[in-house]
Amino acid sequence: MLRCKSMKRTDYCGALTKAKVDQDVLLQGWVHRRRDHGGLIFIDLRDREGIVQVVFNPQQSQEIHERAHSLRSEYVLEVAGKVRPRPSGTENRELSTGEIEVHAANLTILNPSLTPPFAIEDENEPAESLRLKYRYLDLRRRSVQQNFILRHHLSRAVRRFLDQNGFLEIETPFLTKSTPEGARDFLVPSRLNAGAFYALPQSPQLFKQILMVSGFDRYYQIVRCFRDEDLRADRQPEFTQIDIEMSFIDREDILSLMEEMVGEIIFQAKGVRVESSFSRLTYREAMDRYGVDKPDLRFGLELKDLSDVAAGAEFKVFREAVEKKGRVKAINAKGLATLSRKDLEELTQEATGRGAKGLAWMKVTAEGMEAPITKFFKPEMLQEIGRRMEAVPGDLLLFVADKEKVVYEVLGHLRLVIAKRLNLIDPKALKLLWVTDFPLLEFDETEKRYVAMHHPFTAPMDEDVPLLTTDPLRARAKAYDIVLNGTEIGGGSIRIHRSDVQSKIFELLGIKKEEAESKFGFLLEALQYGAPPHGGIAFGFDRMTAILAGADSIRDVIAFPKTQKGICLMTNAPSDVDSKQLKDLHIKKTEA
After folding, report:
1. What is the distance between the alpha carbons of residues 299 and 316, in angstroms, rounded to a whole number?
2. How far apart are CA 105 and CA 55, in angstroms?
3. Residue 317 burial by CB count (10 A; 0-12/13-18/19+): exposed, middle or buried?
4. What are phi and psi of 182, to 5 degrees?
5. The pLDDT of residue 231
6. Res 76: pLDDT
7. pTM for the full model?
8. Taking a C-beta distance cutoff of 8 angstroms, is the pair 71, 98 a contact?
9. Cα 463-468-469 angle, rounded to 5 deg
10. How confident is the model at residue 396 (pLDDT cuts 50, 70, 90)?
11. What is the pLDDT of residue 180?
């Protein structure tokens, strides 16, 4: 039971039980509802732990009864009274306090309230813009508060687990050096150093590596990070991550310990046991089978390669895609052969919206394949397609032929669209997956240079180090992502701990020696003073909490989030500042 030690209040409203019957209590909270039943007035008094019914009887005190008559929603009260069992037949089984009520002996109105712009007790969701403008009211809603209680339980479980496994919580700076590799930095002008800027950290990556060089061995931090990037449901300009680093370990050590940690915190927060050993896919396997590097394993609908069959067909679109070193792949939308022409057009729009030139299809019937394009395929080709797709009458086969990247993008998206349409996703299931063996580098066609797929401090696989000289794009990284229900909730790698290898990676990324020294000189120097092998991982704490809470957006699990334009509707930040402040910071504004 929750206790309110050294406070005037004796109990939380929602924590009262039958054990308190005939005891005097003093409660504090908000009026959730008021009901006037002739002589008796009932209010539901609410605090963060829940609701309890309070009864005002005119026979007990006319003055208190009249005061209760003036109460309205969201008035803040202090109520003294005695806990009584509810009369037989009036119990509310939907409330944890539904078998008891408090008979008021005294009432103090601590503060009245204006009429709220939306009903706190209403189950209907107010418009998000209204919720964010009046966030202090939105946060009173039980469903919203439950998200933050869950978040607290998760962070507590993380700290407990890491403490038990020898980790030290160490804070790293918020005002640091700009190292623009990845998202844009938020810059902070320095008043004491004219024309110079700090950057808010996108992650504590470099500092935690320095801590490993410093001999701290096992570090963690639940830390705020900042990225000036375009926003969406799972992104905010400021976010929280569980940041972890270890020395003298290899990849298997990290994966094993993190499986244990994730399993433990899910159990502590949700009471659910997940598999002790998570599924694993290499990056290439994930892309080939699901079209994405963060597949949702709660359902099947795997991609099947038909490029070899398509190469021999007379269908020009398929044949030319293969000739241009592209791919032809398909998914089997089980039981959707009954889709109308309009439905198929909508699926085609989904495909073209993701970059495809079109979407081909075949309906599977008892007589065989049915579609306008079947005339371009020999009977044995259609049979082979049906065999590979494990097709039975009633199925719908969907094909995309294009560059490999487009094929994956389109079919990976259609897979989710169809799974939702077929109700294949169990909302209560928790499917965890490690994706490993990512490419170390990608080639940026716009900038015409190599870029790090994760970040430039990721170590290459030992056997792939020679490829850094001969064929860099084939080199694999000692990197790993953890995926929960199709969302990446964390990622990490074994780091480069040798200065010469780190310099080689900078060279491949087009970072010249002088630039590397300017941006990362302190790290390169530190790596020359006995840096141990080390690696780590960072979990997106907001994303993880949102999934476990069943929330649609991380905004639902961040106390004071920003809109998709990066605005706080409650405070109206960002906003103009006084010209004197700008002068002190040696800044002049220009017209936009």
Report:
1. 33
2. 9
3. middle
4. 125, -130
5. 73
6. 98
7. 0.90
8. no
9. 115
10. very high
11. 63
Nearest to 161 by CA among 212, 223, 217, 218: 218
Give the phi and the psi of residue 395 in degrees, each rounded to 5.
-85, 160
Three-class secondary structure of residue 97 per DSSP: coil
The rounded distance, in Å, linking the Cα atoms of 491 and 3 is 39
**1 has a pLDDT exceeding 60:** no
Q: Token digits for 61?
A: 């005190």
Buried b (16+ CB within 10 A) or exposed e, 318-342: bbebbeeebbbbbbbbbebbebeee
Q: Which amino acid is at 353?
A: G
- What would the two tokens of residue 585 be? 């910071």
Higher pLDDT, 285 or 38: 285
Instruction: Estimate to the nearest angstrom the gap between the alpha carbon of 517 and the chain centroid.
Output: 35
pLDDT tens digits, 355-371: 999 999 999 999 989 99
Give residues with Cβ within 8 angstroms of 150, minimum separation 6: 269, 545, 548, 549, 557
Average pLDDT over the chain, rounded to an integer: 93
Q: In what order do the strands lie in the sheet with 218-226?
A: 168-169, 218-226, 238-247, 534-540, 487-494, 479-484, 432-436, 279-282
42-71 average pLDDT score: 92
Q: Are 204 and 191 in contact (CB under 8 A)?
A: no
Q: Which of 482, 512, 516 is nearest to 496 (CA)?
A: 516
Backbone angles phi, psi at 339, to 5 degrees: -60, 140
Q: Please tell me whether the peptide bond between 87 and the residue prior to it is cis, using omega within 30 degrees of 0.
A: no
Note the pLDDT tens digit of each residue in 167-191: 999 999 999 998 766 688 999 999 9
* pLDDT tier at 276, thresholds 50, 70, 90: confident
40 class by beta-carbon count within 10 Å (0-12 exposed, 13-18 middle, 19+ buried): middle
Average pLDDT of span 468-478? 94
Within a 10 A sphere around the Cβ of 388, how many other Cβ atoms?
15
Residue 310 CA to residue 503 CA, distance in Å, equals: 45
- What DSSP state is assigned to residue 177? -
Whole-angstrom Cα Rg for the chain: 30
29 burial (CB, 10 Å; 0-12 / 13-18 / 19+) is: buried
Confidence of residue 208 (pLDDT cuts 50, 70, 90): very high
The answer to whether the beta carbons of residues 84 and 22 sit under 8 Å apart is yes
Residue 377 pLDDT grade (very low, low, confident, very high; cuts 50, 70, 90): very high
